[in-house]
Design brief:
Layout lengths: L35 E2 L4 H18 L5 E2 L20 H6 L2 E4 L5 E5 L2 E5 L7 E9 L6 E7 L13 E3 L10 H6 L6 E3 L4 H6 L5 E3 L5 E5 L4 E9 L5 H7 L2 E9 L4 E5 L7 H10 L4 E3 L18 H11 L3 E2 L14 H10 L5 E2 L7 E3 L3
Parallel strand pairs: 1-2, 5-8, 8-9, 9-10, 14-15, 15-16, 16-17
Antiparallel strand pairs: 3-4, 3-18, 4-5, 6-7, 11-12, 12-13, 13-14
Helix pairs in contact: 7-8
């Protein structure tokens, strides 16, 4: 099995019992990928599951039962440079820090990018969704199980936004982020960013790009389709969002495809046909909506493995899992599905708040 995985001794962060009040239990009718969603309280489930999870990952055995409402004891990649690293080394590093949910910092060739800023603290109401994707309940509060990392965001050169939903661009981000940071976003999100005070907006429609100089070359940021649902009417209602293909050009070229909130669709197949092989794939997982009446709103494990195979991704760092109560599938489902399908990509599951090198 050609995968990079390490099993830590404990779970990701500390989680008190913050269950989703609308969570109804089992996931019906998901075929091969079906896994029962436990109603065990999150803290107790994490404590009981940690040693078993380590064994199951080591054996790459399929799980019969998972707890998708709370942070699992996850596999994680090694942390990146030590805190005492010199400023020069930090400035030239190529690394990633996952900050929970869809939020990550990418550093390469002197640029520092922030994806989908969701910066509010843990608690039972991290944000409110107009309709819960699982139950359809209106004005539904969603819990955050872990705090964002204590480490400050630091200098930001670009903010990348996939779409303007509360679970991808929250009130804390709108209030606290510097208003003069260059902001790349879908046209449909520009009005909300402008209303929040951001002044340097670059709206990109699908198949449009912007180019940013780097120390050794340039970075091309291309907007690609991110279909939020298979149901066409629901997809239209949820709004037009972006994924992004990031291509560093120069002596050491590097490519990243960040999906945004996309299910596996024909447009994603077209991205694969155009850009494969991808050095690093950053998919949004969590199987949001898998137990709802209108289906998936982000990829589940089965879709993600199929997409990774078409992309011929050399490395995969899955994000958009674990952190929030509307995520319905743990990241371990993807790891196990990839092992079952003999996916050749190296999978690196990030630890919340830890730095890890961008894999080559």
């Amino acid at each position: 099995m050609n995968q990079s995985m390490r099993v830590p001794s404990g779970s990701i962060g500390r989680a008190e019992e913050l269950p989703d009040p609308h969570f109804t239990g089992a996931v019906p009718g998901v075929g091969e990928r079906s896994a029962r969603l436990s109603r065990t309280p999150p803290a107790r489930a994490a404590a009981l599951a940690a040693p078993l999870l380590a064994l199951s990952l080591a054996a790459c055995a399929p799980a019969n039962r998972v707890d998708a409402s709370a942070p699992p004891a996850g596999v994680s990649a090694a942390a990146g440079p030590a805190a005492g690293a010199s400023a020069a080394a930090e400035a030239t590093s190529a690394r990633l820090q996952w900050r929970g949910g869809p939020t990550a910092i990418l550093e390469r060739d002197g640029l520092r990018l922030l994806t989908d800023p969701v910066l509010g603290p843990r608690g039972p109401v991290a944000f409110v969704l107009p309709k819960h994707p699982s139950t359809g309940v209106e004005d539904a509060p969603v819990a955050r199980y872990t705090d964002p990392p204590a480490e400050p965001l630091g200098r930001l050169d670009v903010i990348l936004l996939s779409h303007n939903h509360a679970d991808h661009f929250d009130a804390v981000a709108k209030e606290t982020l510097p208003k003069d940071v260059p902001f790349v976003l879908p046209p449909d999100a520009a009005e909300a960013a402008r209303a929040a005070g951001f002044t340097r907006l670059t709206p990109l429609d699908w198949d449009s790009e912007t180019v940013i100089p780097t120390r050794a070359g340039r970075l091309r940021i291309l907007a690609v389709p991110a279909n939020h649902a298979h149901d066409a009417a629901l997809d239209a209602t949820l709004g037009k969002g972006n994924g992004y293909v990031l291509r560093w050009e120069g002596e050491t070229p590097y490519s990243i495809y960040w999906t945004g909130d996309s299910v596996f669709t024909e447009p994603m197949r077209a991205v694969a046909a155009r850009f494969a092989p991808i050095d690093l794939w950053l998919p949004h997982l969590g199987a949001v909506g898998v137990d709802g009446a209108r289906g998936l709103r982000t990829m589940d494990a089965e879709e993600a493995v199929a997409a990774a195979a078409l992309l011929r991704a050399r490395h995969v760092i899955p994000i958009h899992h674990t952190t929030f109560g509307h995520y319905r599938e743990p990241v371990t489902a993807f790891v196990q599905r990839a092992a079952t399908k003999h996916l050749p990509a190296h999978i690196h599951v990030p630890a919340d708040g830890a730095w890890m090198p961008l894999p080559r």
